[in-house]
Amino acid sequence: MSDFSRDTAPAIEVHDLRKMYDQKAAVDGLTLSVPRGCFFGFLGPNGAGKTTTIKMLMGLAPPTSGSIRLLGLPMPEESLAIKRQIGLVPDESLLFDHLTGGEFIEFVGRVYGLERKIARERSQELLNLFELGDSSRKLIAEYSKGMRKRVAMAAALIHRPQLFLMDEPFEGVDAVGARLMKDILLEQVRHGATIFLTSHVLEVVERLCDRVAIINDGKLVREGSMEELRGSSATLEDAFVRAVGVVTMRDTLDWL
């Protein structure tokens, strides 16, 4: 594929993607295309296959079958070139507890090939941007869950990636921290980056995302723009509940 074709290819293309565990499909024939410069929400109930999909996109879990292309490059054949251009915020913050936040961010910058001086400067700037400057001497082991999420997102930004893969990035983050993180992510999209995130907080997805896909039992059940998904529904939550076939409560308990 030429450089021009790669530059104009979707940020994410998956075709007939499957992941089997003990004869059960966690992801079952997923086909999806995410355009560049898009804030994309990937939704589903617990156990629907969201985290498994993210792990396959990150290269942490090999698919049983199907194909993945990120930024026009095939995964896993071009995994090294792909990983240089993506920022990862996994569900379980894989941080080094015995480093300070600044040391960890600098370390990630060095892994991505930044010179030591630039990595150190950017690390300090990111700590300040995420309002972690006052905790710069604290070990990550002393961080709250919300602070860990912030430092993980800061580290994902240090090499200025084109694509962000984020699994529940706002989980455990307080309202002030979440607002700060949302503003930073929206700014990245305005600069042309693509963000692919999972979240259980539908109000956040509704406020941030341009397009949304919903999976259930490993299969894609709905995909489109926010307006298309909502349709006649008042909220994304209504559309989500309809798409995954949740039955609303009909009976109540006398004693409750």
List the helices and strands and how they pair.
Blueprint: H1 3-8, E1 12-21, E2 24-34, E3 39-43, H2 50-58, E4 65-70, E5 73-75, H3 79-83, E6 86-89, H4 101-111, H5 116-129, H6 145-157, E7 163-167, H7 175-190, E8 194-198, H8 202-208, E9 211-216, E10 219-225, H9 226-230, H10 236-243
Parallel strand pairs: 3-8, 3-9, 6-7, 7-8
Antiparallel strand pairs: 1-2, 1-4, 4-5, 9-10
User: Per CATH, what is the topology of one domain?
Assistant: Rossmann fold
Low-confidence spans: pLDDT under 50, at least 5 residues? none
Query: What is the residue-mean pLDDT, rounded to a whole number?
Result: 90
Portion of residues within helices? 25-40%
CATH H-tier superfamily of one domain: P-loop containing nucleotide triphosphate hydrolases
What's the architecture of one domain, going by CATH? Answer: 3-Layer(aba) Sandwich
The global form is globular
The multimeric state of the shown protein is: single chain
Structural class: alpha/beta
C-alpha termini separation: 62 Å
The sequence of SSEs as H and E is: HEEEHEEHEHHHEHEHEEHH
Please give the largest β-sheet: 6 strands, mixed
Q: How many β-strands, per DSSP?
A: 10
Q: Which CATH C-level class of one domain is it?
A: Alpha Beta
What Rg do the Cα atoms give?
Answer: 19 Å
Number of contiguous helices: 10
Please indicate the percent range of residues in DSSP E strands (runs of 2 or more): 15-25%
